[in-house]
Design goal:
Strand order of the largest sheet: 1-5-4-3-2
Largest sheet: 5 strands, mixed
Helix content: 40-55%
Order of helices and strands: EHEEEEEEEHHHHHHHHHH
Radius of gyration: 23 Å
Number of helices: 11
Distance between the termini: 53 Å
Number of strands: 8
């Protein structure tokens, strides 16, 4: 192993064990998930640290929102991080370029290391309080048919949760398509200008260095070049970030879900909306007496999503649900 990752916590893997585990780990963005440890990045270097799973208590997503972040507007709306809690409270925060990669890593952990909690302590407390509030609320009496329909939705949800990667990809592909379609083309021209400025600054910095310029000059120019180029490349069209690629990914995700649902007779929602959160919200609508049949419950889910916009304040849990599924409905015009 050319670059041996450093252990962040007290626990260590044997050198040979570490080499094999890192070699075969699942690489997701700048981090990785092995059989015995998680591999984490520094700001510049991928998978340069590791923490054995035996030392980890929590791994969760943290999203730093800049101004306008919750509206989804602008090029720099949010900054996703993976947070690993180990050794009785120590934290390592890893920056990611794409939020979907954090979701993918957490999905892998859910499947391969289910004993590790995937929410922060504060979020866990909020969820417990929310569940207690829901349990304490007096729900209306519902018919036997409504109860039967809830059970049917629960079975459908359990079927989806056998292959969580399909629902995750369906959500992420829809969000990427929606973001691409709503991003002003002018942003891409700005990104191109920023990237060209970065390249020119880098070239001038090298030229200044070769001619014996002062440390301050080329340090500043190199720094500006890095900032400009990293900012620009996040928006510029690439093999993954262009119209055809984005649409193709969304269609592929819907096709994969459709193929999976072929073995399930009378699945209660179309494949394009097949996500556990959709089914949970449909169950909630029936439990609250707002619907009896799955079709009516789906219409209520659509109505509720339409009513939510940037001016509506919701809880963090509600926000997470809406972010996961709203793009799927927007892309299909709620049909």
């Amino acid at each position: 192993m050319i670059f041996k990752p450093s252990a962040l916590g007290v626990a260590r893997l044997e050198p040979r064990e570490l080499e094999e585990d890192k070699k075969h780990c699942k690489k997701i963005g700048p981090c990785g998930v092995g059989k015995k440890a998680i591999y984490l990045n520094s700001f510049y270097i991928d998978r340069c640290y590791y923490v054995p799973f035996s030392s980890i208590s929590r791994v969760f997503k943290r999203v730093a929102m800049s101004k306008g972040g919750f509206t989804g507007k602008g090029m720099f709306a949010s900054m996703p991080y993976l947070v690993v809690v180990f050794d009785d409270g120590k934290e390592k925060q890893c920056n990611f370029k794409y939020e979907e990669q954090v979701d993918q890593l957490l999905a892998v952990l859910e499947k391969e290391q289910p004993q590790i909690k995937r929410v922060s302590a504060a979020a866990e407390q909020r969820l417990a309080e929310r569940e207690a509030e829901i349990a304490a609320q007096k729900k209306p009496e519902i018919s036997a048919q409504a109860q039967k329909n809830i059970q049917s939705l629960q079975r459908a949800q359990a079927y989806l949760e056998k292959r969580p990667e399909l629902s995750l990809e369906l959500s992420q592909a829809a969000r990427r398509r929606r973001a691409y379609q709503t991003t002003s083309p002018s942003y891409r021209w700005v990104a191109l200008a920023i990237t060209i400025a970065g390249v020119l600054a880098l070239a001038y910095g090298i030229w200044s260095l070769l001619r014996g310029g002062t440390f301050a000059i080329y340090f500043t120019l190199f720094g500006l070049a890095a900032i400009f180029m990293f900012a620009g490349f996040s928006v510029l069209p690439t093999s993954r970030n262009n119209r055809n690629s984005v649409i193709r990914r969304d269609e592929k995700a819907k096709g994969a879900m459709q193929n999976y649902l072929m073995a399930y007779t009378d699945f209660p929602v179309p494949a394009r909306y097949a996500h556990p959160v959709v089914l949970k919200r449909m169950q909630r609508a029936i439990e609250e007496g707002r619907a009896v049949w799955p079709n009516d419950a789906l219409d209520i889910v659509k109505k509720d999503l339409k009513a939510l916009n940037a001016s509506v304040q919701v809880s963090q849990e509600e926000y997470d649900e809406v972010v996961a599924i709203k793009a799927m409905f927007l892309n299909e015009s709620y049909q």
